[in-house]
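Every protein is a chain of amino acids, and every chain bends into a shape of its own. The protein below has been through that process, and both of its lines are reproduced in full.
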Amino acid sequence: MSSNWRAGDSSGTGLWPTFIVLCIALALAPLVIDTHTLTILLIYGMLALSLGLVWGFGGILCFGQAAFYGLGAYAYAVSAINLGESTLPLMLSIALPALLAAVLGALMFYGRISDVYLGVITLVVTLIFFKFLNAAAGDAYRIGDARLGGFNGIPGFQTLNIPGQPDEYITGHLLYAVVAVSLVVIWLACRWLLASSFGRVCVAIRENELRAQLLGYDVRLIKTALFTLGGAIAGLAGAFYASWAEIVTPSLFSLAQSAEIIIWVIVGGVGTLLGPIFGAMLLAALKIALGSQQLVNNLVVSGAILILVVLLLPGGVLPALLKAWRGGRG
């Protein structure tokens, strides 16, 4: 196995140089872009990383990563309304999507569902959430003090606060710092995990599942564990989104959201950890820039970029940029 895989990334970059560059970029970014926009770009990067991990290193193409993302956002909003503080809601926003991913993953992997049906099942689960929450209007649809609100969603809940101090809100530059640090920590944790024996087995399963099984590894358990981790990361991204937007709506579970996540990962670079983050931030920034115009639909632009990347840069944009930079130096 190559040293790139041992590092947990196929970009060929060392851990510490990448870490230093990443920290410097995150520290200087607010000088160029406002922190409100940067925060949502990092949240999308975290969401893309959750899929990049399970797909790029486990070979699990999940069409329903938006289900875990939306569930994390709704879990945070509902529990924040009932508790009036963000610490436990933040934990629940990670735990509930992780539990859903664990149950769903166990049913699919132990049931030996093929890759095609796995994609269909995960997409259907996402659309079930979308349809149900759109129809969940009226006083009958409430959890404690929180009304689900139908297509209008849930507004007006407690946003992130300093633990134990509900009146000390985490907003603006502080929220950006929290999201940025969380993303870096998750990236480092994923690098460490993929450099471990567990990560090497995940890559082996991706390359040849039958061979890994014949070598004595419990393929179903390992894939379920990786799938669960991806769900937990997506749930945390959902909680951060809820605190950033101060409202959650069923659009988080939409087909467009599910498609965007996959596009982000492909454009950034499948099989890398930084690639999906880069792809999400790049395309989300473009979407924000095009948001005020009505001439071209954003999904059309994303689709066109996807086609160009697949045809011209099949490895993804970030690996291609790194390759060109190393070639220019040498």
Q: What stands out?
A: The chain has 14 helices and six strands. The chain has one domain: 22-253. Residues 1-8 have pLDDT under 50 and may be disordered. The beta strands are 142-143, 146-147, 154-155, 161-162, 165-169, 247-248.
